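Quick one: co-fold with zinc ion.
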Amino acid sequence: MKPPEKISCVDCGGECHLISYLSDEEPLEPGTVLSYRCSDCNDRWDLVWEPDQE
Ligand SMILES: [Zn+2]
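Sure, here it is.
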């Protein structure tokens, strides 16, 4: 399971792009903080990666 490359900005509805470096070789650990930067309002959003485990 991979994190989204883009998310919607909560403030302006624009696109936030993932700016965290992700390794292709290592799986993303739950609890990893992913940083996104909005291309419209330039806000930064930090998201904790918590994939749904079922
Ligand atoms: Zn924004």
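If it helps, Residues 9, 11-12, 14, 38, 40-41, 43 surround zinc ion (CB under 6 Å).
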